[in-house]
Amino acid sequence: MVISTTDPASDQQVHSSTFASRYVRQPLPRFKMPNSSMPREAARQVITDELMLDGNPRLNLASFVTTWMEPECDQLMLAAINKNYVDMDEYPVTTELQNRCVNMIANLYHAPIGDGETAVGVGTVGSSEAIMLAGLAFKRKWQQKRKAQGKPYDKPNIVTGANVQVCWEKFARYFEVELKEVKLKEGYYVMDPVKAVDMVDENTICVAAILGSTLTGEFENVKLLHELLTNKNKETGWDTPIHVDAASGGFIAPFVYPDLEWDFRLPLVKSINVSGHKYGLVYAGVGWVVWRTKEDLPEELVFHINYLGSDQPTFTLNFSKGSSQIIAQYYQFIRLGFEGYKNIIENCIENARILKEGIEKIGRFEIVSKDVGVPLVAFALKDSSKHTVFEISENLRRFGWIVPAYTMPADAQHVAVLRVVVREDFGRSLAERLVSHIELVVKELELLPSRTAIGSAHVDAVQEENKDPKSGKKTQREIIEDATRTWRRFVNSKKTGVC
């Protein structure tokens, strides 16, 4: 976009890029605030020029986060950008909109709310904060019970699958809770309920199930987990509860899989988190956590403050935050309604099906994701002995596509996949274009020398034990594992270390 402005020196109209260059004759000092001011037009243009090097959010198929909203909602968000959500007394309507959202979500998840009662929950800046809050509630409830029983309460643990999002690891580390992970295996990339319940002991504060695995989009079997855990609780006298991390699937399952039992219909499910900025269809910065009943949230974790004008109960890790995303979430709820959400999610699922079929027709890939779950397509190369999914990911960036390649967690580290998340703004035409570009990249790579063979030879030149003792040559699986390790190191070397 070209913006004209007046050059104060010559009083002539000039392009903003030219205008900015007149004030920024030298590179801006790194990590140091400039000594002097510059005109606002110049500052904007300097930043605009740098941001051109960012990827296109609409083509970022790595992210579950919403990248498009209606202009009317954009206007509402901009109008509320200067409202601090925590000032509940000054902005009571915003607070009321948040409470309405909590009640809508709780009802969507079949919370047992009586007549005249309100749901128990809170808006957060994302599912990471929501999970921290839910985890703290479980830890405190468990500690209270152990203290009352005169038993040790210094070694709490949580049982999860190795496929959990990193925020669970953060919670465990930050709040001193042992994370007991059920390892994965090739062909089964979600938590095994049987193994999970076997790992439960008297120090387990909850079992965390994932409704929409980040790796493959698959829903874990919460109902089976509930049945097994109920039986174990009866045998042991424990009351180990379940938390459902529905960050990705919480705004999918109610609309397209209404008969799937994973929510508060199961008595052991005490809390659920969901990301409003994923399939809740709001820009980044909003999540939700709801509890089954008021008793499941310890009162001692709720703070009451009055220095902002009135008594305000609050249970958050963050304090000040913008109101825009809360307002945007309410807009989507009343704008779309149940039918609107259902139509959008069904359309996403259909586009994921089209993408999956197109990738299958290429003939080089194995589909790893499942049909029931989050609308995404995860796929692996049938033969990685010459080239890898990391090379495909790297080459797709020429066309603007950001398609992540990654390896599975333990014990399936040798499996490397590509993943495409299908969001509301990823239509059929884009799906077909992506398939054509994937096919083109694959054909081009086949004409190039194998970087995999070079990399694996370099990494494992001294590891003679990897050789087949009979033939003296590496097996196909060993070659793939070598290649995966090589490219994983390459990807890690590019990470900035910034969260």
Can I get a quick summary?
This protein is α/β, with parallel strands linked by helices and 499 residues long.
3D structure, described in words:
One of its GO terms (molecular function) is glutamate decarboxylase activity. InterPro entries: Glutamate_decarboxylase, PyrdxlP-dep_de-COase, PyrdxlP-dep_Trfase, PyrdxlP-dep_Trfase_major. The modification N6-(pyridoxal phosphate)lysine is found at residue 278. It catalyses: L-glutamate + H(+) = 4-aminobutanoate + CO2. It holds the Pfam family Pyridoxal_deC. By secondary structure, the chain is α/β, with parallel strands linked by helices. Helix content is 39%, strand content 14%. It has helices at residues 16-23, 40-51, 71-79, 92-108, 127-148, 166-174, 193-199, 222-236, 253-256, 324-362, 389-396, 428-446, 451-459, 476-493; strands at residues 4-6, 13-15, 120-124, 157-161, 178-182, 204-210, 242-245, 269-275, 287-291, 303-305, 312-314, 365-367, 376-381, 405-407, 416-421. Strands 3-9-8-7-6-4-5 form a 7-stranded mixed beta sheet, sandwiched between helices. The protein has a 4-stranded antiparallel beta sheet with strand order 12-13-15-14. Strands 1-2 form a two-stranded antiparallel ribbon. Strand 7 (242-245), helix 9 (253-256) and strand 8 (269-275) form a beta-alpha-beta unit. The longest helix is centred in the last third of the chain and has 39 residues, at 324-362. The radius of gyration is 26 Å and the shape is globular. The relative contact order is 0.11.
